[in-house]
Fold each of these.
Amino acid sequence: MTGKVWQSSPAAAAANRRAVKALLRHFSPARRHLIPMLQAVQARLGFIPAEAMLEVAGFSSIPAVEIYEVVTFYNQFRRNPPGRHSVRVCLGTACHMLGGYIALDAWQRRLEIESGETTPDREFDLDRVACVGCCTLAPVSVVDDATVARCDPTRVDGLLLGFEQAANARKPRDAAA
Ligand code: FES
């Protein structure tokens, strides 16, 4: 779990607030509806930013700190937006024994984020997961929908280089060249 709080840009925060306000019209403000409200916010925004928590707090009259506690307690809730690419590092028993933490450290260092966070450009989000069911390939990372076998730091470098090349290929060519 990360301690870093995602900061939406002012424009994004305003748009998120509007979206959450519209969603909340479908709920009664009763406390028992808090989890469904938060689930609806996450389904709409992909995560639950601070501004959404404040909107829910205002609507339900539940203190914002309690809403923050609920969001941080349940794994189903994300406090960071999903990235364009998702990286899941397996830390199940087999992967743990065969270098899962080394792979996680490599991803964290290269992406300059911790597990549970999203890069500021929203290209990558990073999470640790339990066994993904292919222990003979340990240590495993799952990148988007692809299982990466024996994922060591060199493999991490290669994957990120591939993403960088793909991003460069998408950039429009310099017209002045
Ligand atoms: S422990 Fe990682 S795939 Fe099973």
Amino acid sequence: MAIVAHVDHGKTTLVDAMLWQSGAFRSNQDVGERVMDSTDLEREKGITILAKNTAVRHGGVKINIIDTPGHADFGGEVERGLTMVDGVLLLVDASEGPLPQTRFVLRKALEAQLPVVLVVNKIDRPDARVKEVLDEVYGLFLDLDADEHQIEFPIVYCNARAGRASLDAADNGTDLEPLFEVLLETIPAPVYEDGHPLQALVTNLDASPYVGRLALCRVHHGTISRGQPVAWCRADGSIERVKVTELYVTEALDRVPADQVGPGDIIAIAGLADVTIGETLADPDDARPLPVIRVDEPSLSMTVGVNTSPLSGREGTKLTARLIKSRLDTELVGNVSLRVLPTERPDTWEVQGRGELQLAVLVEIMRREGFELTVGKPQVLTRLIDGKVHEPVERVSIDIPEDYIGVVTQLFALRKGRLENMTNHGTGWVRMELLIPARGLIGVRTEFLTETRGTGQLHHVFDRFEPWHGELRTRPTGALVADRTGPTTFYALLSLQERGSLFVGPAEDVYEGMIVGENARGEDMDINPTKERKVTNIRSSTSEELVRLVPPRQLALEQALEFITEDECVEVTPTKVRLRKVALDQAERGRRASQAKRSRLSGV
Ligand SMILES: Nc1nc2c(ncn2[C@@H]2O[C@H](COP(=O)(O)OP(=O)(O)OP(=O)(O)O)[C@@H](O)[C@H]2O)c(=O)[nH]1
Ligand SMILES: [Mg+2]
């Protein structure tokens, strides 16, 4: 089964509890919290990024579990996960209720005709509102046109953190036994035909330091034994005969060697050098490839290329176009929802994905590997439908204290958001649901958090394509742009900080065309942050100046990507995130700006 839910509703925590209670660990074993979030970035961000599988035993039954990410940008991982399972465990937070990604994952599960077990999690929360949340879930099933059979799902109430489950909302339960029982009753054992030729679908890839690339497969029909020849049905339609050199199954967190596996097993196979996701392993005498895995189209793109700034090569080790291209190609192999396209520049590529976070995570991983990159502004991907340009529209759900309804409504109205629904939970908090062009969401998060003093919650997920909504307001402020190369000075920054907020501190290297701050006014301004004080006889104390200099605003990668406009980009290195103009030369920028203005005026 796959565990699906909105972000942070407690999927990975529930998997932890299931592992513990099925005896996967020794009682004195030192395992951290949320063991399935095993990559560095996952632990740091506290979210799941990659879908992963584990297995627990209950009674005589082995239950394969796929833990999926809840963040909308990693929806491709959920879709891939659903091709491996016979049922889903839909988790909903007892206080937050269904949110945009709950709708997305449930829609995918219903489309795949998978049986659903509903888990209402976090019933221990003081603000739990179980009855209403249940009504909302039923509403969601109806909204998604679930048939009668699908809507008769069993409900289990859980406190995943304490490892307790119960069939009665009023009772806390003592362990997860009730959940296991419902799962075994509701989710059928793998269905297969006796004597059907082998079919195993490659649904994920991994690598082992000992045996190289591993293909993770779900066996649908037939059996596979170690050393056996199989027909490898490739993406290009060709069929190759290969030998399965190593065969593993998952037990808790370990891969253990297996001699023979059958329908329902999730296996890892070595020996297929450049296998890709979606290919089939079949019977060599009767090869029948399974249908390819289909996932939703990407909705956002940005350019990624070599670092062309004057400071390039200082902080990173991987600088060349060739290295970047081969790294992007590697990423494509394991990530079904990404695409990489050439651009008119030989050293820059267009990377397409599901959202800003997904793209930012890729850049973040690359910079940690030593890459230096130039990253362009994220752009939505439009599509021609019946000869008309259409753009992606997102469904947004926000939770805010009542007091901010006014400012937040205004914020979204400027970006062509349409309010669909507003509910007041009577707790001082309201939930608003809107539809908004994806373009309008780029950069909204920072402003939204400022307007709601950091209290607001915002979630969004792709909903549909709609005809182009016309021009949208972008960043209202201009940039403070360095007009020369050199180190910044106290003296210069002290007077510049009056103009807006600065991104650099004293004694930092800047270059012509680099953005050193946000201008309070609407236009860009070229300034000199390297100016030295004229030497005079009057002494002043430096410590006094230090106090008066406001600490610089350090933009993290995601914030930088949100901040920039069309004619700007981000320079990313292992240690620095710098903002810059695409055209560094002041005169060149002037020419481009007046050209853009002329074409706007003439309506071209
Ligand atoms: N109070 C309470 N907190 C819980 C419960 N289950 C999980 N949490 C907390 O909720 C937070 C999110 O838990 P995760 O297990 O990472 O959620 P997730 O659904 O895996 O999140 P993503 O994979 O990023 O979508 C953590 O801080 C957990 O400790 C619960 O039953 N009660
Ligand atoms: Mg998780």
